[in-house]
Amino acid sequence: RKEVQAFVVEHKPTKEQIYIPGEGTLLGVIPYVEARVKMAVLDELTILHRVLYGRNGKKHTRRRTIREFQGVQESEVAALKKRVENLKPKQLKYCLDMMGFKKGDNMDTLVEFL
Question: Is the model's pLDDT at 6 over the cut of 70?
Answer without folding.
Answer: yes
